[in-house]
Each structure stands twice: as C-alpha cells, then as structure tokens.
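Researcher: Batch entry, complex prediction.
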Amino acid sequence: MKLVPLCCSLFLTLTTAAGAGVALVPQPVQMAAGKGNFTLSASTRILYPAESPETGRIARLLGAEIRQSSGLDLAVLPAGDAGRGSKIRLLLDPGLIDTGAESYRLTISGREIFLTAQTPAGLYRGGQTLRQMLPAGSRKRSIVLPALEIIDQPHFGWRGVHVDVGRHFHSVAYMKRIIDWMALYKMNRLHWHLTEDQGWRIEIKKYPRLTEIGAWRTEPDGSRYGGFYTQEEIREVVAYAADRFIDVVPEIEMPGHCMAALTAYPELSCTGGPFTVQTQWGVFKEVYCAGKEETFAFLEDVLSEVIALFSFDYLHIGGDEVPRDRWQACPRCQERIKAEELADEAELQSWFIRRIEKYLSARGRRLIGWDEILDGGLAPGATVQSWRGMEGALTAARSGHDAIASPGSHTYFNADISTLDLRKAYSFEPVPDGLEPDKIRHIIGGECCLWSERITEENLDYQLFPRLLALSEVLWSNPRQRDYADFLQRVRSHYPLLEAMGIKYGPEARPVTLLTRFDPEQKLHTVTIESGEEGMALHYTLDGTEPSTASPRYTAPLTVTRSTQLKAGAFRDGRAYGESAKADFNFHLACGAPLHLENSPSPRYSAGGERSLVDGLRGSIAFTDGRWQGFEGVDLVATIDLGETRPLHRLRAGFLQDTGSWIFLPAFVEWSVSREGGTFKSVAAFDHPTPAGTSAQRIQEDQVELPGTLARYIRLRARNVGLCPAWHPGAGGPSWIFVDELVVE
Ligand code: ACM
Ligand code: ZN
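Model: Structure tokens for the complex:
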C-alpha cells in the first residue's frame, strides 16, 4: 500500500478516533487534526461541478443519506468552488493521488468541507465517512465539526456480504436495506446466494418451472413458503447496488444444493426423481447428473440469462458440499469418468467445474467457488472462497489463484453471538498464516456469510450488527492500526446511527452466561453469572419472571437448593442488553444418586459428566446448551440407585427432537424398577415413531404415574432409532438420542 504524505503541516497525525472527536468505522488509514472548526447548519449547501453529472448524482445521494440518518436537509446544487457561505464541495480529480479506485481525501477546515477523489467510487466512500461524522437523529440547528484531513483507501479490494435467500427469502425492499447498510460501512460486494435445495429464487425465462415449482416449498404443517425475483427485480437490485458502488455477485449453486431445480426438472438428475423442494436443512445426495449433456445445456442456458442480468465480472457457482453417492451409482456419470479419463468422482467434480469455467471465461466472466472446487484440481482462473477454515485460501493463493477468506469460525455471522462474538470477528485475519509474501496479493479480501436457515427479515440485522463493523474495519483499515478497545469505543458511538436507520442490532458478546456446578453429596448447585462484556450490571430472579434493574443484583455465586427457574439479565445504563439467560432446576428424589450408564454419552455432549442425568438441571430447546447428554448410534440404558427402597409417585424423562441436527426421539422407551437390583419389573413403555419429514424441534417428556410402588433401583431403556431414515438428509448415518434428566418423584 502506498500512502501519500498529508499535505498540510497544520495537521497532526492522529492514531485514535477519539482524538478528532469523530468515531469512524472503518478507521481511516490516515487522519490528522487541523485547527479550528467547521459549522454545519441547515443552510450548508452540497456543491458539485455542473459539468459532472456523476458527481451530481453522488452529491444528491449523499444529501439523501445525510437526511435519513441525521435529519439534516441540505440543498444540493451545481456550482463551481467559488460559491460563498458554508459548503460541502465534491470534486472528481483524476490526477489527485494514486492510491486506487476507492481512495478519497476529505478535508474539513473553517471555510468548507472538501471531498475529492480520483473516481466516483472514491467520492462515494468519502461521503460515507462524512455521513458518519454527523450526529444521528440530531435535531440541532448547527453541528460543529473539528477541522481535520483524512486520506483513505481500502486495504482489501473485496469486502463482501453474503446473503442466502434460498432458505429464507428477502424482498427487494429488504435487499435494498442490506445494500444501504453495506454502503455505510464501505462494503463493496453483495454475494447473492440465489439457488438452494429449499428454493430457486431467480426467474429464468427459458425454464419457467424453476420458479413456478422450484421457488415454493410445502412446509411440514402444510403451509406454502417461497418467493422469487423477476428479472426486472434483479435488475432493480443490481442498479440500486451499482448506484452505491457495490457489485453484486450472483451465486447459482452446482453441482449440489440444487434440489429445487431438480424438483422442477428431475431429468437433470442421475435417478430421474421425483423430488420435492426441501424443507429440511442439510446436505442432500441429489445433485446434477454429470454424465448427461442436457445438464450442461441447461446450466449454460441459465448462466447466459444470469450473465445478462449482472454486470460484474464475477459469478459464483457454489461447488460446496457435493455428495458423490449418485455419481457413483450412475452409469452415465461412470461413462463420463471413463471417457474423460478421470480417476474418480472427485475428478468428475473438478471436470464439471472446469467445463463451466470454460463457458464463463469465454463470456468474460470469472468463476468463484467454495473451497471444495479445489478437490480433484482447480479450474484455471478460478477464485476460491475459503469457508472450511483458511486452508482453501492458502492452497489457492500458493497455486497462483485468487482467494476470498470467509472462514466459518470468524465470518459466519449466522452463528450465535456466544460462538462468534464481536471481539472474535474483529480478530479475523484474512491472510492465512504461513502464506509467502509474494502470494499475499492473491488474498483479494473477505466476506461474511448470513446463511439463512435461522435468519429471516426479522433477525438478519440482529445477526449482522455490530459484527459487520468488525469485518468492515478488518477489510478496509490498516491492519497495523487494529485496536479492539478503540474500535469498541467507536462501535458504541455508532449505535445511535444504527438506531436512526432502524437497525435492530444484536449484542457484542453473549450478554449473560450461567455457569452451574452440581455437588451430588450436598445436592446443591453453585451458580456463577458472568457477562461477556464489561460495564454490565447483572440482575436475576428466581421466580421465572424477566429480570429488571429492580431485581436483586448479582454480586457473588448463588447456591440453589430447591426447584426454581433462575433468570439472569445484563443491563447497561439501566437498559436490558440482549436476551436473558435461564436455568430450570428441578430437584427430585434421585438428585445426586449413583447412576450407571451402559453406554457412554459422546464426549462432545456429556453435559458435564456422569451424574448430569440426576443433577436436577433441565435442558432448553438448544441441544448445544451444555445440559443435554447425547448418545450417538447407541441406546441409552441408565440405572439409578436410590440407596434404599423408597415409595415412588412419578417418573419423568426429557428427550429432545431436533432432526435437523440428527437428533431423534428414542423409538421406544421403557421404565422398570427393582427392590434389590436383580430382577426388574417393567412399569411403563412408550413408542415414539418419527413420521417422515419431521422437522419440529421439541422436548418430549415421558411421564409415568406409580402410586404405591416401592423400589430402590430405577432403570430407563431408550432405544435409538439407529440409522437416520431414508427420508432424512443423513440417511444411513447414525442418529442421536438427547436426554437431559431422569426425574424421580
Ligand atoms: C458452505 O457453508 N456450505 C459454503
Ligand atoms: Zn449421473
């Protein structure tokens, strides 16, 4: 990166945002304070050279954006620089500074605000910097800005946001909102994931069934879900983005993740179908047949219509998560492997992508694929988007290919904030460790992903913000200036702006964590409440109500000895912050009793160990909450020893159903009891068949009434479904039983 020196000796270089009284994200590469102030008021005019209509357009857009976020309505006028009075002057100056297409210079002095850039894109980016300096929602008549000079340019050219509209559809109006948010934070690539197993979202004139059939799915409750963009609407979104210097990268998934297309045109599969547009999430075995010429005729027709709609050079063809089962069993695919002298199905996948790459490059388009396109050999000219860690980016860059870094660990913003908090998002390093210096230029940037299995228009902003600010700074700013404490301060001063734009941003970190420790001898839980962020007040309740600042304040670990619901919330400046955390305690006769398990739970889901099934702590609907024990591919057989014969009234057990995570209710559950531990008498049994297509997440509580029964030993047998059934995406693989507690009363 080449930087020009700041032009004026009056300016002092600033290292922190707060230094100039402005809080910018991303942090500009160079910022220096000047002397004096500029007063901006309702009479300040935005001026552009009359002979530059493009500068005029950018000036009007900036005026509208300032009005939206700050409420200030500034006149936008064509004029030379001779105009008198308070002004913001925009100027395109191709000879300005040689720092790249998006660079700009913003100078605030007592006389004027002067924004200049080599390119229209640079002018627009600089306008966003200015917009961020104005207080959001301000009703002040005048705003005083400190004199300063900024010279700025992006570190990475590719700064992307990936939006999956396959699982959940977003309207054109909503896509425009996302583009507005991207623009504010200088993001420049909208990666639009348009086709999926659960829906085909783009009108293709030659294949109308793609949207007539492929855009709609029948949910398990019988309702219809779907939607698609007409070609006119696609053009509208692309133009809206282009006005803000954001390029749109369409993604048309192949050879996998295509069940919506195959439902419409089953003849493009290996088996001929029939198929249904999927309602489950996951990876499906049905893929395009690589042996049929019809597949390529179809894909080329589709791509030719897509090329006509999108102006950007790049086109994404997916390429991720392609099971090889169908190709292995398909005579045509096997014939192709032979005819093309390919070693196996991995090379068939590579051959498939290379064939598509040839088609695209002949039409001036550059192919991007997820890192699986490396398998079996990379197509010439292909750009790799690395999502399974950074290995794909490393391999691609070393072989002279460009790469976009999107490791799930740091950029999948669909992830819960407890897995990927703001600090972690900010620690993202797009250049893989160990990459040779002469190959670093192949890392063209990074992208965050919003996979939409659990994202709708209702919660997308909650997932994207504030993490987008971290990615924006990682990709734009000088990596040597990265400073989390300073960044966090700036993020917090951006919240009013986000609010003014109607963005329901989420928390910076998991607001509250409840840590429980069970003492089986004392039969009590010690609960520690932690906040993921500093400066939080923690309050809790023990009666199931939502905590408020009037609830008891947490100061030291709590001891829980009776059945109760504990809820804890974090508060900043008296306002609830994020969601509260809760723990359900259900003390019973067997709490702390010795327990024998015939099969061990998976170490990944042990819920804290041996006696977790009799610790009185109940699980939530989230299988990852640390309170469920998971048994993979085996039965749950648990025997409790109460220590002496006791009268029993009731037995209960909680099982989780979450088939999207391969978790099924046990096929069969049997309770039995014994006085001496030798012979057990069956007291109740339950069947839990899982109907085809079941996707609801729920907790099943099996309950047995046993008035007058005396026993010392209690046994529960829960039979695993075994292999995931044929209708399930994991068909043939092991399924799980999840159990949280065996309650004896
Ligand atoms: C991906 O997450 N399957 C690219
Ligand atoms: Zn085939």
